[in-house]
Amino acid sequence: MDVKVSRRQFFKISAGGMATSSLALMGYAPTAVAEARSFKLAMTTEHRSTCPYCSVSCGLIMYTLGDKSKNVKPVIMHVEGDPDHPVNRGTLCPKGAGVLDMIHSPNRVKYPAVRAPGSDEWKRISWDEAITRIAKHMKDDRDKNFIEKNAAGTTVNRWNTTGFLASSAASNESGYLSVKTMRGMGIVALDTQARI
Amino acid sequence: MPSLQSLDIAARSATTTPSPSVRHTTEIAKLIDESKCIGCKACQVACMNWNDLRDDVGTNVGVYDNPSDLSPSSWTLMRFFEVEVEKDKLEWLIRKDGCMHCAEPGCLQACPSPGAIVKYSNGIVDFISENCIGCGYCISGCPFNVPRISKVDNKAYKCSLCSDRIAVGQAPACVKTCPTGAISFGSKEDMSIYAEKRAGELRERGHKDAGVYDPQGVGGTHVMYVLKHADRPELVGLPKNPSISTMVGLWKGVTKPIATALMGMAAFAGFLHYVMVGPKEVEEDGEHKSEKEQA
Amino acid sequence: MTNSWVDIKNTDLVLIMGGNAAEAHPCGFKWVVEAMQQRKAKLIVVDPRFTRSAAVADTYAPIRMGSDIAFLGGVINYLLSNNKIHMEYVKAYTDATFMTKEGFNFDNGFFSGYNPEKRNYDKATWGYELGADGFVVVDDTMENPRCVFQQMKKHYSRYTPELVSKITGTPKDAFLKIAEQMGATAAPNKVMTILYALGWTQHTIGSQNIRTMAMIQLLLGNMGRPGGGVNALRGHANVQGITDMCLYSEVLPGYLGAPVDGDVSREAYLKRLTGKPLRPNQMAFTQNFPKWHTSQQKAWWGDAATKDNDFAFDYLPKKDAAYDVLHMFDLMFQGKMNGFVCQGFNPLAALPNKKKLSAALAKLKFLVVADPLETETAEFWKNFGPLNDVDPKQIQTEVFRLPTTTFAEETGSFTNSSRTLQWKEKAADAPGQGKPDSEIMARIFVKIREMYRKDGGKVPEPILNLSWPYQVAEAPNPGEIMREYSGRAMVDLMSPIDPKNPKEPQKVVVPAGQLASFAQLRDDGSTACGNWLYCGSWSPAGNLSARRDNSDPSGLGVFPGWGYSWPANRRILYNRASADPAGKPWDASRKYISWNGKAWGGVDVPDMRPNAAPEENVGPFIMNPEGVARLHAIGMAEGPFPEHYEPFETPVASNLMNTNPKAISNPAARVYKGDMEAFGKASEFPYAATTYRLTEHQHFWTKHARSNAIVQPSPFVEIGEDLAKEKGFKNGEMVKVKSNRGEVRAAVVVTKRIKGFDVDGKKVHMVGIPIHWGFKGVTQNGYLANALTPYVGDANSQTPEFKAFLVNIEKA
User: Fold this and answer.
1) Does C800 contact A181 at a Cβ distance shorter than 8 Å?
2) Rg of the Cα trace of chain C?
3) Fewer CB atoms < 10 Å away: N or C end of chain B?
4) Which of C202, C427, C482 sits opposite A49 (nearest CB)?
5) Which domain does C714 fall in, by range?
6) Which residues, in sequence order, are CB contacts of A193 under 8 Å at separation 6+?
């Protein structure tokens, strides 16, 4: 079958053979130019975090640029599993392992914006303007449609013409504050992604 | 630039200067247990994140393999195989493809560019891209069809086994991330022992042909598999008896004058800083092994 | 999850059904792999398609979508007929011995009490027979035909292996082999776990799918035990926490029932929801309801909630109807809703029937979307060609889009599927002007409060008086919020007056400040606690959710010093049931808690009154007034025993379990006007379809992440080789999938992993539809899969039926 050559023979054919027309004759001298890439996380700052995707809620380590000194703006450079975490023990699935690309997605929303009725574009606005306009819409709707008492005369204090949907990716603290403020205003049309 | 010595380089392509060989580092290996692999591609994502690679966003072509092949930006890839070894008993075999880090690397031996491919004494076969002349001989030299040449910079790329992580005592990114523990990492000795143990456990569990894939035709590999059907590695796209004999085909086809001319052109183009000056020393053990294999 | 992720490693048998743990929860699945290697556990996967979970399973069996109750009912029948039940457990810890009411029956698809006009049940004949003493009558022999055990036996005797196979398409021998393996865990020293997810919930019989499995786990004696339980693998990092905080119309934080129109006073409300033991000596833990609710009112309205004003009971809105998200969108669709705030939720993609959703949003006056990413919902008004074919000019909704932080850019806690709260720190700022959701909510609230202060308006008191003690009103600190929901004593809490010695001075039992446990809550207004279940998460010792002690002294994966698990840092719920009635662990290799002669103790916090001696017979299911687990549950809308009903769009003409044309599908499921008409028929849409997730993506989120786009770039649907051959499809070519509500186009993946089903002698082909693409993202864009799905939900939870509907498929 195939004529097989050993590694030694191979070099006789190739390197050794070519040595006669050696490039050394052309004046090239050996230098060492092999090195593993330097370890890119060596002096980054580490934060412990929790993966936002599924509810295994794996421990993450977020590596940010810089050492928290005043003049450096931290940017998340790399994310890995937290090896101390009892559930994931350093591992991450394809979603968690790629979470850096979600954080730095080109599709991040960066500024408040409004789309006017009938318009086909976004218009950037300030936070103050956004909050004021939203608050006004909500107050108008509440004042117009708030139900104080039902037909039986029971105080019901409900507002059911504005709805609220909460995220399952928000923190407990955000979730608590959302339910407290929404219920506090009388909203009953309240639901979350968790239902789905 | 550090010296050869600081990197514990055991072999360099197209180099006759003997590597310093007094110090010995632990030989390492990655073990891939097919029976635990769920094909989640976490290893692919961890690889691209660690190595700062982002391949093109492709399209679905009727399979789960995405990207559809290894590329200069995709150094590892899950390959999916729907097989029915026993009638009406579907098995979805999934194999993580990528560089095997052969003890006797065909790529290194085929490479005409000095120092473009190195083998560290821990077993890693690494491409030193700045020395790469893009000739593609490594591809022909690889029995596993792994290296890929970039259209952007005309250099060959493949898995480095995260040599930068291992250099500081960390495991490769794919190993660390693997959710099910299908990929493990340690000394070659420990991994070989564990591989045999796992194969035994699988045989007990009913996978009667389970075994270890550590092909001796390339001197053994630093990426090994535990396969459910070790008797038929071709079921998951692995060569049954890979060897560096493919060199023959290569060098029969490329006549010496052409090869020399290529080298010269490369040198004039300024890619080469170093040249071979004599027959290369090879470690005797590996040599005997491959000769014995051929006997 | 009743148990925890790591606890899965303690099992002998894993059943994955109604879920796909390897793909949806790979890092949790590692504990399945661990059990398989270390304990030699076996893995069974039952799923319509051969999933990546199936790829590593010991046993795989196909099942037609929506027929899980038929399968599991068949398992119950197998267990009862073959005496594969853990009898001592069943007698002591379930209601098997309880007598049901006279008049309860089941006849041809309906339980007693059905009202076809209202599509609901009068439950008067359901439930237990009570004796003169107010306690349930029991039959310890379990021979009375009216006892729960006999009723259950009778009900499930109809689920024969032959019938199971005809309905489910699961080959009979495969079904029996699985039933046998499950039955083997009835031995006291064997335990099975079940891992499920949306494959069970997203059905019109979703809740009953899970109940059937819970019944099996009870019959096998696997609840409350290491390696056992019924484990819902939940979808988002804080889906459990948001569920516990109860951002739901039905409940207030900690699952306290929300007031309804009928609650005419605080007294009536408390009476309705305060539990009372149904058997002697039971803990009936909901007896404490007034303490939880009063403390919550104090947390919300502080000094404005006084004894004199019924602790501000009137400030709480009372609901008159369901307000789940399907109902909300139906109201919107009818033009009855003006405003809508979406916080990190993309309903245009995540709810069924995109066409209806889109039309509903277009009827709003204003929509607010707060999200870190550009969602489809925020741009429902924009034309994206065939992917979102709308005319912006015709849509008069004013849309606000607010940038939020991601998890990485804010501090706070998430609660995982194992009920463990874990604290995380902010790593960097959000790009641009993104703000945390908590700050956005605070800003909106503070602005509205300011407007009411200045301009007055309708019933301003609940708003003006809402407790707002935060240092920075517009940006409450997560630590402050956690301390608030965890709870505190406003004053030193004193010991009760000793009736024998009323002059004896009272002692301080709890000093003013953060509380350690919900056991310290009071109903007199002296404690404030936003969520009783989370009471003690920020204890006098500090923020327990931030603990990072990962030692596991027992080796059973308990990790008591890692984070904080509700309730009371308990890692396995109902763990009293891990020991036999005498208090000895059922299995020596998994000793969890036991009775030492004086007290309960062990490696976890016992789920039992610490001094409840075994001879007191205090049941382990302390939240139930009967103290035991329910095989017969009257809380369910469609019957106390789960019954198989077909999906609303079914590929078969009849329900083989009955001959009643009105009982083909869930008779108690809610269907809105117009939606019934939008259901398709098998004659026109002959293929059984289901939607699902792939391991490479998280819902509609990771399509914005390049790494994930690379590994799963573009939309596809999956079909078997037979159907592909019949249709003449080539692998990878574009096809069009249509339901009665819409269509999607995608590449077709032809696979051996989908084989279709042999249902009552007829071949039913399957079309699988992954959901992850839309008209925004760094993936290839695609059609939202919910263009196809039906607008109908589970009769109890209203979770949409995404998992079983009908389509047709043709070349694009």
Assistant:
1) no
2) 27
3) C
4) C427
5) 661-811
6) A165, A166, A167, A168, A169, C235, C236, C239, C242, C344, C345, C350
ipTM of this predicted structure: 0.96
- For the purposes of burial, counting CB atoms within 10 Å of the CB of C630, is it exposed (0-12), middle (13-18) or buried (19 or more)? buried
Q: What is the pLDDT of residues B86-138, one digit of tens each?
A: 998 999 999 999 999 999 999 999 999 999 999 999 999 999 999 999 999 99
Q: What is the pLDDT of residues C760-784, one digit of tens each?
A: 999 999 999 999 999 999 999 999 9
Chain-chain contact of C33 with B181 (C-beta, under 8 angstroms): yes
Helix (H, G, I), strand (E, B) or coil at C701: coil
**Bridge partners (DSSP) listed for residue C420:** C565
Residue C513 and residue C539 in one domain: yes
C-chain residues within 8 Å CB-CB of B35? 56
Amino acid at B245: S
The answer to whether the beta carbons of residues A93 and C22 sit under 8 Å apart is: no
pLDDT of residue C490 exceeding 50, the answer is yes
pTM of the model as a whole:
0.93
Token pair recorded at residue C618: 């205090």
Distance CA C182, CA C220 (A): 8
Together in a domain, C461 and C542: yes
- Placement of tokens 């990655």 in the chain: B30
B234: amino acid identity, one letter: E
A contacts of C466 (beta carbons < 8 Å): 180-181, 184
Is C599 in a helix, a strand, or coil? coil
CA distance to partner chain C, nearest, from residue B14 (Å): 36
Asked if A27 has any chain B CB less than 8 Å from its own CB, the reply is no
Residue A72 lies in domain:
45-103
Torsion (CA) C367, C693, C46, C197 in degrees, nearest 10: -40
Which CATH number among 1.20.1250.20, 3.10.450.50, 3.30.70.20, 3.30.420.40 corresponds to the domain B5-294? Answer: 3.30.70.20
- CATH code for the domain in which residue C99 is found: 3.40.228.10
Closest among A155, A186, A148, A190 to C317, alpha carbons compared:
A186
Contact between chains at B39 and C750 (C-beta distance less than 8 A): no
Token representation of residue C695: 């391991």
Domain total for chain C?
Answer: 3
The SS3 call for residue C435 is strand
- Asked if residue C168 belongs to a domain, the reply is yes
Q: In chain A, how many domains are there?
A: 2
**C145 shares its domain with C289:** no
Sign for the CA dihedral angle at C576, C577, C580, C581 comes to positive
Q: SS in 3 state form for C532-565?
A: HHHCCCEECCEEHHHCECCCCCCCCCCCCCECEE
C30: nearest Cα among A131, B177, B9? B177
CA distance linking residue C256 with residue C533, whole number of Å:
10
Q: Which of C583, C613, C643 is the last residue of a domain?
A: C643
Phi then psi for C605, rounded to 5 degrees?
-75, 120
Residue with tokens 């196909």: C62
Point out the residue among B35, B59, B82 whose CB comes nearest to the CB of C752: B82
Q: What is the rounded CA–CA span in Å between residue B39 and residue A155?
A: 58
Identify any residues that bridge with B82 across adjacent strands, giving them in sequence order: B92
Query: What's the pLDDT tens digit per position in C573-630?
Result: 999 999 999 999 999 999 999 999 999 999 999 999 999 999 999 999 999 999 999 9
- Asked if residue C594 and residue C537 are part of one domain, the reply reads no
Partner residues linked to B12 by β-bridges? B118
Residue C812 Cα distances to C717, C748, C768, angstroms = 13, 10, 17
DSSP, residue by residue, B56-76? ------SSS-SSSS-BTTB-E
Q: What single letter denotes the amino acid at residue C649?
A: E
What does each C-alpha distance from B288 to B141, B189, B295 come to in angstroms?
20, 20, 10
